[in-house]
Amino acid sequence: MARSRWASPRSESASSRPASTFKELIARTLFATARENSRYAINGVLLIRTENRLEMVATDGRRLALARTSIPKSDFRGDSLRCIVPTKALQLLQKLISTDPDEQIEIAVADNAVLFRVGGGVGGDGDQPPRATLRSVLVEGSFPPYEDVIPKDCDIMVTLDRDLVSSAVRRAALLTNEESRGVRLAFDGSERRLKLSSRAPEMGEANIEIDVAEYKGDDIEIGFNPGFITEALRVIPQPEVMLELKAPGKPGLIKSGSDFVYVVMPVNLQ
Q1: Last residue of a domain, one of 87, 116, 148
Q2: Are residues 139 and 24 part of one domain?
Q3: pLDDT digits over 214-265, tens only?
Q4: Nearest Cα to 229, choosing from 183, 191, 194, 179?
């Protein structure tokens, strides 16, 4: 395969993916990055590329989003890659990506910098120049061991209608404030029902009930920051999502197929 002429001679790795796929990976992780956190490494998104997979991971310490996509071996060049891309660079890349489904993005890393080539003769096989090229210095530091954060022993599994639960959470969130940020989720397995409740002093309280598509495990009550839930549901295209739980004080896990995993810490509700 011809060498891409845009990459540095000391480029550690390079691969190309459809722009639409990369845009989806960014959308599914960027919202969970930290804002002005003293732990500089989580102010970016971890990018991991292996022989057959591309992953992006983001966290702010209270939630974690992981999105992945498969890579054909024919698209793999160079070595495996693991680096932290600044949040602002990915925000800019989002704006550079067009709606053309055939457009490609090539990624390369060299000299502690990442380069993105958008459109043009991706892969070094043509004279057409890229439509846009973005270069960014990588974030220094070590990303948290995210694999250890993802729960692996959840025994409560709930299948939910994405739009139904998103609407219910948003309505319950209307009666929360700075002192009562959480929404209580009470699951009744025998009735396959979910009751969402919230209250704010001098404002009142909300009680909303919705049906649950499938339920496995014991009944449970747990509180979550409503914004953390709705932001995750917003980036899931599938109409159903899986929620996995262990205990009221343990993190919850939202899944959409095998390509999106979202961990969210619970909040203490009085």
Answers
A1: 148
A2: yes
A3: 999 999 999 999 999 999 999 999 999 999 999 999 999 999 988 999 999 9
A4: 183
Amino acid at 103: E
- Cβ-Cβ contacts under 8 Å for 152 (sequence gap 6 or more): none
pLDDT tens digits, one per residue of 187-220:
999 999 999 999 887 778 899 999 999 999 999 9
88 within domain boundaries: yes
Whole-angstrom Cα distance, residue 104 to residue 40? 30
- Closest by CA to 56, choosing from 267, 262, 269, 268, is 262
Whether residue 45 lies inside any domain: the answer is yes
> Sheet containing 104-110: which strands, arranged edge to edge?
76-78, 13-18, 104-110, 113-118, 132-137
Residues 96 and 180 placed together within one structural domain of the fold: no
Kindly tell me the burial class for residue 52, based on how many C-beta atoms sit within 10 Å of its own C-beta (0-12, 13-18, 19 or more). Answer: exposed
How big is the chain, counted in residues?
A: 270
Cβ(59)–Cβ(146) below 8 Å: yes
Q: How far is CA 101 from the centre of its chain?
A: 21
CA 261 – CA 251 distance, rounded (Å): 13
Distance CA(225)–CA(181), nearest Å, equals 6
Domain of 243, CATH number, reads: 3.10.150.10
d(CA 117, CA 5): 11
* 185-188 own/partner pairs: CB under 8 Å, 24+ apart: 185/221, 185/222, 185/223, 185/224, 186/219, 186/220, 186/221, 187/156, 187/158, 187/212, 187/215, 187/219, 187/220, 187/221, 187/245, 188/219
